[in-house]
Specification:
This protein is 41% helix and 21% strand. It is α/β, with parallel strands linked by helices and 507 residues long. InterPro entries: HATPase_C_sf, HATPase_dom, His_kinase_dom, HisK_dim/P_dom, HisK_dim/P_sf, PAS, PAS-assoc_C, PAS-like_dom_sf. It comes from Pseudodesulfovibrio hydrargyri.
Length: 507
């Protein structure tokens, strides 16, 4: 019968008598200490009914008693003890004398149960089992605390999910970033707790690309690479892992899912890939300069000469015109490639970036101001100069603004914001255009990638190259339909003074 049934009957399952047991002990010795531990240790309440020590009899003269029973009444014989304590309903005999046990069995009334020294062996065994269990539980609690501490210190997001995708447990990183107490997230779908590093939503449903689904079907570890755009429009890279958890019968009972932010590592890898591409492009450009440009000039020259000939009819002139235009396009592409791989001119000089931005805004306003485009400059006062080449930085700004204009064919506002942040001079160029998708953000800085029909894909890649050669950094933030922000971070120029010689020390 289960505990619920006994609880409703209101009786103790031990001997079917009412508890608690008022215990009278007959005899002393080592077993008394074990018996006292069974009576007073709360750990045994899980195994035995409640007991309390009423009195002790038949003690060995001169033998010291344990501290737990120093105040307990002591009687010379068990008969005196039972007469003085009629509430005793359990007598435990630990004298080891079979005659004493036999006498007790004959004299005890039916309302008093007896455990003699032979039967007490079973309680001693139960005592040892409970002690061992206590050690194991203590060790298990320590191990559980240690494992939980380790998991909580892991920076990755860890979810323990059931096979329906509901949260069974999660580490501290997840619930702190979600801003919801851990207990409130248990039992809820995992996507309600998953967040990006800035606290924005990771997904709004159980994402079909999540490896959770594959592990659910395969029963093996699965992983996937996903991209997300955070609240600021910056592209983030995540590696998702799913691990099956099996029960004692070998059936998959849970799935552990881990989110690892690999944005920084991915950016480093992309940077190295770009450097490798630059090296290849440099070799190709050298070959093109020697093997293609001279024949290209000859073709273009002859085509231009033919175009001026009065002997050509209209159809022939159109064909020659196509040759001229295509040679110009090839020459422009070749020039861009050569400029792209051309070594940096050097560290340059101190450049007033605010002044460069104003010059660019005025230049672009002349060409596009009347076409519905507005250029706004916001600059903090007393910004330091940056180290670089003024013409190269101006080229970067012009190319960025042209991209913004192309993203706003109907006109719009372009804001150039200059400030000082984390020790760098920061320029943010923001438009109100069509924005960029995750795929476009991912590939924006790749050489030769372009969304324009006539683009060569070197614009942003060249900007990135120029800024990084100046010791700076470029980031893109965008969302479809919400515009784009290009951020340039450049270190301030260092004002190093030449040491002044102390004339007084001259001889």
């Amino acid at each position: 019968m289960d505990d619920f049934a006994y609880e409703n009957l209101g009786i103790c399952y031990w001997n079917g008598t009412l508890g608690p047991f008022n215990v009278g002990v007959v005899g002393t010795g080592s077993m008394l200490r074990v018996l006292l531990d069974i009576i007073y240790n709360e750990a045994f309440r899980e195994f035995l009914p409640e007991m309390c020590l009423s009195a002790i009899s038949d003690t060995t003269p001169g033998e010291p008693l344990p501290e737990d029973c120093e105040t307990c009444p002591i009687y010379p014989t068990y008969r005196e003890m039972l007469d003085a304590h009629p509430e005793i309903n359990l007598v435990v005999e630990i004298t080891g004398d079979r005659g004493a046990a036999a006498s007790l069995r004959k004299e005890l009334p039916a309302t008093v149960a007896l455990i003699d020294h032979r039967e007490l062996i079973f309680l001693c065994g139960l005592h040892d089992m409970a002690v061992v269990k206590g050690h194991y539980m203590t060790s298990l609690d320590h191990q559980r605390t240690l494992i939980q501490s380790i998991i909580d210190e892991i920076r990755e997001d860890i979810f323990l999910l059931d096979k329906s995708g509901n949260i069974q447990d999660l580490n501290r990183t997840v619930w702190q970033r979600a801003g919801v107490p851990r207990k409130e997230l248990l039992g809820r779908p995992c996507w309600e707790a998953a967040r990006l590093r800035d606290g924005s939503t990771f997904c709004n449903q159980l994402d079909p690309v999540c490896p959770f689904h594959k592990t659910l079907l395969s029963g093996r570890k699965e992983e996937a690479l996903v991209t997300r755009v955070n609240g600021g429009g910056l592209l983030q890279y995540y590696r998702l892992y799913a691990y099956p958890i099996f029960d004692m019968r070998g059936n998959m009972s849970h799935i552990m899912v881990m989110h690892r932010d690999i944005t920084e590592r991915t950016q480093r890898e992309k940077y190295q890939q770009q450097q490798d591409k630059f090296a290849i492009i440099g070799e190709i450009s050298t070959y093109l300069a020697h093997e293609i440009r001279n024949p290209l000039y000859a073709v273009g020259g002859f085509a231009n000469a033919l175009l001026r000939s009065p002997k050509l009819d209209e159809q022939e002139r159109e064909k020659v015109q196509i040759i001229v235009e295509e040679t110009r396009r090839l020459d422009k592409l070749l020039t861009n490639m050569l400029n792209f791989v051309r070594p940096s001119p050097g560290p340059g000089s101190a450049v007033d970036l605010a002044e460069v931005c104003r010059d660019v805004a005025e230049l672009m306003d002349v060409g596009y101001g009347r076409q519905g485009y507005a250029f706004v400059i916001k600059a903090e006062e007393h910004l330091p100069s940056v180290q670089g080449d003024a013409d190269s930085l101006k080229q970067c700004l012009v190319n960025i603004i042209r991209n913004s204009i192309e993203a706003m064919p109907g006109g719009g506002e372009i804001t150039i914001d200059l400030s000082l942040g984390d020790g760098d001079v920061v320029v943010r160029i923001t438009d109100t255009g069509s924005g960029m998708s995750e795929t476009e953000l991912d590939r924006a800085f790749n050489p030769f990638y372009s969304t324009k029909a006539d683009g060569n894909g070197l614009g942003l890649a060249l900007i990135k190259k120029i800024i990084e050669e100046s010791g700076g950094h470029v980031t893109l933030a965008s969302r479809p339909g919400q515009g784009t922000t290009v951020t340039l971070r450049l270190p301030p120029a260092m004002d190093v003074e030449h040491p002044v010689r102390n004339e007084s020390n001259n001889i």
